[in-house]
Write a structure and sequence with these properties.
The complex is a heterodimer of chains A (121) and B (109). Chain A is an all-beta fold. Chain A is built from no helices and eleven strands. In chain A, a hairpin with a 5-residue loop joins strand 5 and strand 6. Chain A is globular and about 45 Å long. With 109 residues, chain B is mainly beta. Chain B has one domain: Immunoglobulins (Immunoglobulin-like). Helix content of chain B is 0%, strand content 53%. Chain B contains no helices and eleven strands. In chain B, the strands form two sheets. In chain B, strands 2, 4, 5, 6, 9, 10 and 11 form a seven-stranded mixed beta sheet that branches. A four-stranded antiparallel beta sheet of chain B has the order 1-3-8-7, with no helix packed on it. The chains are: A mainly beta (121), B mainly beta (109). At the A-B interface, strand 5, strand 9 and strand 10 of A face strand 4, strand 5, strand 9 and strand 10 of B. Chain B: Its main location: membrane. Chain B: One of its GO terms (biological process) is adaptive immune response. Chain B: It is found in: Cell membrane; Secreted.
Chain lengths: 121, 109
């Protein structure tokens, strides 16, 4: 069965960086992309960006350009999301999700369990 | 800055029918925006329900359906169950970028 298992909760100081991992299993990793989505406390979902596990192509949300980097390690079927220069409003649960796009449609189907990142001095 | 708008809250009686909508600040929503719908309950990760306007995932209950309605994407729940009480989010695809709606809190009362 498809699973996305994320790394554990993190507490970071303002200005620091965080790197969250997302290990995939149960499917051919390179046949799908991974989207990263975050959710601040009591707020809605915010798309952060996407990476192709096939060729490493990325597309980041404009507001995070320059602070976020998404990578994959195909040898371990793991995706990573690094966010730099953390601020208090980056405090959120960070999710990875499997996505698929072709000429007939776009789908996000399976989600990781979420990783709480707390930014506090 | 593209904004995707959903009803903040809706209330429905058990067994009833309710339609949630998803509008784009860029104009009418078409199938080319590949609308997706998700359900999220407190403390849980979102769960995918609908993709590319009207396609169901293998786990999506039959009472959930997706469509385009009056220039918006729509999610209709028919024969609502108490366990359908949740937050519902739509997603629209803008040629590589994705925007989520603000969510609709559905109360079953």
């Amino acid at each position: 069965q498809v699973q996305l298992v994320q790394s554990g909760a993190e507490v970071k100081k303002p200005g620091a960086s965080v790197k969250v991992s997302c290990k995939a299993s149960g499917y051919t990793f390179t046949s799908y992309g991974i989207s990263w989505v975050r959710q601040a406390p009591g707020q809605g979902l915010e798309w952060m960006g996407w990476i192709s596990a096939y060729n490493g192509n990325t597309n980041y949300a404009q507001k995070l350009q320059g602070r976020v980097t998404m990578t994959t390690d195909t040898s371990t079927s793991t995706a990573y999301m690094e966010l730099r220069s953390l601020r208090s409003d980056d405090t959120a649960v960070y999710y990875c999700a499997r996505e698929y796009y072709d000429s007939s449609g776009y789908s996000i189907d399976y989600w990781g369990q979420g990783t709480l990142v707390t930014v506090s001095s | 800055q593209t904004v995707v708008t959903q009803e903040p809250s809706l209330t429905v009686s058990p067994g009833g029918t309710v339609t949630l909508t998803c509008a784009s600040s860029t104009g009418a929503v078409t199938s080319g925006y590949y609308p997706n719908w998700f359900q999220q309950k407190p403390g849980q990760a979102p769960r995918a329900l609908i993709y590319s306007t009207s396609n169901k995932h293998s786990w999506t209950p039959a009472r959930f359906s997706g469509s385009l309605l009056g220039g918006k994407a729509a999610l209709t729940l028919s024969g609502v169950q108490p366990e359908d009480e949740a937050e519902y989010y739509c997603l629209l695809y803008y040629g590589g970028a994705v925007v989520f709606g603000g969510g609709t809190k559905l109360t079953v009362l």
